[in-house]
Amino acid sequence: MIHDLGPQLFNGLVLGAFYAIVAIGLSLIMNLTGTINMAHGSFMTLAGYLAYSLVLRGTSFWFALIAAPLIVVVVGIVVERTLVRPLYKREPFYSLLMTFGLSLIAEEVYRLIWGPNGVPFSPPASLNGALSLGFMSFPTFRIFIAVVLVVAIVALALFLTRTRFGLRLRAAVQDTEMIAALGTNTQLLYAVNFGLGIFLAGIAGVLAGGMLGLSPTSGNALLMPAFVTVIIGGMGSLFGSIVGGLLIGLAISLTTLFIPAASEVSMYVLMAVVLLVRPRGLFGEEGIFG
Amino acid sequence: MSRPVLSRRSFVTLAGAGSAAAAFGIPAYIPRIGEAAESIKIGLLEPYTGVYAGPAENETHGFEMAADAWNKRGGIMGRKIELVKEDEQNDPGVAAQKARKLVNQDKVLALVGTVSSGVSLSVAGVANSLGTLFIDSGGHTDDVTGKSCHWNVFRTCHSTWMETHATGYSLAKRFGKRWFLITPDYAYGHSLETGFKDVIARVNGTIVGDELTPLGTTDFSSYLTKIDAAKPDVVLVLVQGDDYTNCLKQMNQFGLLKKYPVGGPQVELEPLYGLPPEARQGYWGIEWYYKSDKTLGKGNKLAHEFVANTIKRYGKPPTARNAFGYVTLDRLAQAMSDAKSTDPVKVARAIEGVHFNSIFNGSGYYRKEDHQLMWPMWVAKIRPDGSPGDKYDLFDVTDIAAAEAIEQTVAQKEQVCKLGYP
């Protein structure tokens, strides 16, 4: 069992990176405008489906990996301008209800367009297969996923800390009124911020579609762990989402090794512990990136 | 969720609103115009939303084909069949509610349908308390015709015992007697496990690994890494639906499909369509197939017409789910016709024990002692890309097993099943 530990740790980290990326997207949207996006999973699924359809029409997987999330971002911004914006002035409860309804509608739409069964989306042949590391083989696709997610997180970090726009975003999270008073177009900020969160969801969605099945109900499976990640990492902290995601990923895979039946529960246990010991989450309410 | 505004109260309200909205669904309250009083209403419960929407749709198509065929001939005793559909959402609680509504408000004369075993059991119980017939077209758990059997409950699809025995012997003979199981950790999975353990004992083999995976597992890697160490002759995948898709996809990515033969008690075309071709491998139990003499019977006109009409009407060939729907309604209608009555007890008596020919090879009958449809089951090898000109042709049927050889005997069943006719 000990020699299983290494691969399991790696699996846990890949899984964790997944949850982290989805959680960061959720967190970005939540931090700035208080919008709880219950449709986040639906955007992920949409990206997966679009990638599938693009590849079916002959584009390469690599093209679809970038194009599908971008198309979903456009959809996301339209949703933000038409459905989310009217609710900014209200309690977060309203956006939660609205996005929940949206997720139900989305599921039916996907069923209408792509059918009720799953669709066979798989990574390109170059990523299929496994890398042998002596004691076990690793699916190349998972290594690829890990790389993409790390690149995405680093890129996001650079964007938020090294660009003017990123700076304004972080400032807006701290004090929206002040930054509006200083002349920033906050509506543009909200839209771009939402789009950014959706872009991350889109990337995660395409990758998830390759690793797991792709069906109208796919989005739901990854949404709950993402919310748990945000709680554990702390509301308001993107760094917390990363740490939270990795922690959950590790918790789930290590529990699977010893007590498989408890693997789903482990993340909720972790959440309960964190809430008891430090209710604001590990890095909560300290602004973006610590 | 940790902000004070989104407290328990908000969540409970949301959950309440959400489930209320979901429960009432599409209005069946819209009154039907026309000859509603004359027709024979049959309540059809299927999971139109959720993970089993695909099979639900196909079962429904099968039901519709049978209803139409009967209605073309004038209906049952001169009365047209009317299918009243409700979405049970793959949830036993919702299913019970909808079943009650169908019987009490819509005044259906019988209930049919369901895909998930949990839902089938729930509807069976409700139907029994209301004294209404229920024919379980698609829920497989042994209990429906075992310890939870009732006089008013019949089952069309094969039981889990039949599935394990149809495939178990075949897999042992073909590949060997060291088995590695990947089992979904709930009632259905456990009953499959029991069935396979029975087979392996009879062939003097061993189960070298049995991984119980929680329902809804997305990441199977930790279970798959144990396969190499166990050195099995064949890997049996018992998980179904989305879990099946994830498991096979990942087995492929880990290179396991090239190393070990894979098989299992059952596979359906619906999840297979969702798997990339390189992950479509192995020998699996199948309950019917649209394109094989072994499953349809050589020269079976009724079967070939059924297949052709389904393709014409719905644009794709029928799966086993279509067959379940069709056989269920066809036999129900026949029983009502034979009994010249819609009284549940008389119809139940008219269904059981009657041998009939239908859209499958040979003949079948709903066994008197437990109301299980006794019809053959088959094993097939998957053709990853279909056949030239037919992308749906994924099965190469290799074995056929007679029902009596793969189901528990009457004597065994009578120990657990008491029908309890009124």
How would you describe this structure to a colleague?
The complex is a heterodimer of chains A (290) and B (422). By secondary structure, chain A is mainly α. Chain A has one domain. Chain A is 74% helix and 2% strand. Chain A contains 11 helices and 2 strands. Chain A has helices spanning 2-33, 40-56, 61-84, 92-114, 140-162, 164-174, 176-181, 186-211, 218-233, 238-258, 263-277, and strands at 130-132, 137-139. In chain A, strands 1-2 form a two-stranded antiparallel ribbon. In chain A, strand 1 (130-132) and strand 2 (137-139) form a beta hairpin. In chain B, the strands form 3 sheets. Chain B has a 7-stranded mixed β-sheet, with helices on both faces. A 5-stranded parallel β-sheet of chain B has the order 2-1-3-4-5, with helices on both faces. In chain B, strands 11-12-13 form a 3-stranded antiparallel β-sheet, with no helix packed on it. Chain B folds into 2 domains: 1-158 and 289-372, Rossmann fold, CATH 3.40.50; 161-286, Rossmann fold (3-Layer(aba) Sandwich), CATH 3.40.50. The model of chain B is unreliable at 1-6 and 25-36 (pLDDT under 50). The relative contact order of chain B is 0.12. In chain B, 43% of the residues lie in helices and 17% in strands. Chain B is α/β, with parallel strands linked by helices and 422 residues long. At the A-B interface, helix 1, helix 4, helix 5, helix 9 and helix 10 of A face helix 1, helix 2, strand 7, helix 7 and helix 9 of B.
